[in-house]
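Troubleshooting entry. The earlier prediction with adenosine monophosphate gave an output that would not parse, so I re-checked the input for stray whitespace and re-submitted. Clean input:
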Amino acid sequence: MLRLYNTLTRSKEEFKPAKPGQVGFYLCGPTVYNDIHIGNARTFIVFDVVRRYLIWRGYQVTFVQNITDVDDKIIDRAKTAGMAPAELAADYDAAYRQVMEALGVLAPDIQPHATAEIEEMIKLASCLVESGHAYELEGSVYFDVRSDPDYGKLSHRDIDQLKSGARIEVDVAKHDPLDFAVWKAAKPGEPAWDSPWGQGRPGWHLECSTMAAKYLGLPFDIHAGGNDLIFPHHENEIAQAECCGDREFAHYWLHSGMLTIDQAKMSKSEGNYLLLKDVLQIVNPQALRLLMLQTHYRSPFDYSPARLDEAKAALARIREALRNAEWKGGQADLHAACATARQAFQEAMDDDFNTAQALAALYDLIGALNKSEGSGEAVDTLLELLGVLGIDLRSSAEDAYSPAVVPLAAELTGYPGDIAAEAVELLLERRAAARADKDFELADRIRDRLAELGLGIKDTAQGSRLEPL
Ligand code: AMP
Ligand code: ZN
C-alpha cells in the first residue's frame, strides 16, 4: 500500500487517486529568468522519481508542469540585458529543457506557458471579483484573504499568524496586508494584455490555479513543489481555485526540503550558489541523482563536494558490479535475492518514497551479485529498479565509450567506421597485439591516448576492457 505525507493533513495517508488507476500530478515549474540552480534541480529530480515510481506501480500518470514566462524578475532581467522579456524567457526556457533532459528528468506530459493561458486566467480572476473574493484597486485585482474562511489551511496558520511572519507591502491601499495580487496593472513598457480592469498581466499564483484545473480537472490528485512554496504560493493557489468552483483543488500536497550548500542557504551574494549546468560539468547525471536520493525528499539536503565525490565512487561501484557480472561465466541463482530486493525496494518507496532505504535494498542485491559466480536475473533487476529512480545505466557502455574514441581508432588502427563500441574493440585488440609483439611504445601510447579521453584500461583474466577513470 502506497502511503504519502500530505502537507494539508500533516500525516502519511494511503494514496487513493480520485479516478482508480489514474493520477493527475501538478508540479510548479520554473520562472525562466535565469539558469536553474541545484536546489531547483533537487526538487525536479525528487518529483521525477515520484512520477516514475507511480508509473512503475501501474498508474497512468498525467504530469503537468507550468513555465512562468511573464513575471517581475523576467521583466527586470530583460531590461538589464537590453532584451525583450519574451526573448529572455524563451532563451531560459530552452536552457531549462536542455538541462532537464541531460539530467534524465522525464518531459512533462503537458507543459503550459503562462503567456498562452491569459484568457483562462482572466476568467478565474473575473469569477473571484464577481463572487466577492477579490476586488479591484487601480487596475489591479487583489484577493481578499478575509473572505476565505479556509485561508491558511495548508500552512496551518490563521491569517493573523501568517501576517506576523510576512513581509508587508505598505504602499498599496489593500484591505488587508496579506491580500495578494491576482492581476497586476501594467506599468509603461511592460508586457500587458487587455482585461476587464485595463491592461495588465496575471499574478504568479493565478497561473497555477488556472492551469492545474484546466489540464487535470478538479479535484486532482497530487500537487507538488519545494517547501518554500507552501506559503504564500500554494496557499494562494488553493484560495483562488477553491473560492471559485466550490470544489477541492488538489488532494495530496507534497513538498520537498530545501537544498543547502555546506550547511548554508544558497545565496548569490555569499558566493555559495551553484548552477545545475556547472555541476553537470563535473559530475554525470546518474551520480548527481544517486547523491540526492540518498536523503529523504522531505528532509533538507546538504550538498558538499565531499558528498559529491562519495556519490561518484558509489556509482562507480555499481557500474563495476554490473560490468563484472557481464564478464562472469558461472551459474548463479539469484532469484531469491532479486525477489527480496524488489520487495524491499517497493516497501521503502511505498513508505512516502523513502529512496535512501530503496537504495539500501539495491546495495544488498549488488552485494549478493558481487559474491556470486554468475549474474542470473540480478543485472536486469538492478537496471530496472535503478531506472525507477531515473538512474539509467542501460547505456553505461556507450557512456564510457565517448564518441572521441572513433577518431582515435581511425588514427591508431585505421578504423573506417563510426561506432564507438567497435572503435574501442579495435583499440584494445591493437594494444594486445602490440604487447604480444613487445611493442610497448605503441601499447603505452594507446593507453595514454585513452587516458586523455578519461578512459582507463582494465586487464582481467577474461581480457581487457575500458572504464571511466
Ligand atoms: P522557482 O523558480 O524559484 O519558483 O523554483 C522552482 C522550484 O525549485 C520550486 O519548486 C522551488 O520550491 C524549488 N526550489 C527553489 N529553491 C530550492 C532549494 N534551495 N532547494 C530545493 N528546492 C528549491
Ligand atoms: Zn505553482
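This one parsed fine. The chain is about 45% helix and 15% strand.
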